[in-house]
Write a structure and sequence with these properties.
Radius of gyration: 19 Å
Strand order of the largest sheet: 1-2
Structural class: mainly alpha
Order of helices and strands: HHEEH
Largest sheet: 2 strands, antiparallel
Low-confidence stretches: none
Shape: elongated
Mean pLDDT: 88
Number of helices: 3
Amino acid sequence: MDEDNKPRFPQLPKLPKRLEPNIIAKGWSLTKSLMRYAVEGFPNVSEQIFEARMLTCNACEFLKKEESTCGVCGCAIEYKGRMETESCPKNKW
């Protein structure tokens, strides 16, 4: 107990913010993404929107730069960024 007569509890170690999705989660995410894209007729965003999305992704703390993938959903940003049917999992675009 401390001086306020409150019991002291040991500090728990900090957990990592979020681990990258495993291969099964990535596969399922890709399947859903491609189905939405196909059902809508494979629509792409304009080059201006794509460039804005890439600027946002390249500045994001979750980007895995060496792989050019999103650390939250695991998608390849250069492909997902072109799809009109897709959005950032952190609502940045």
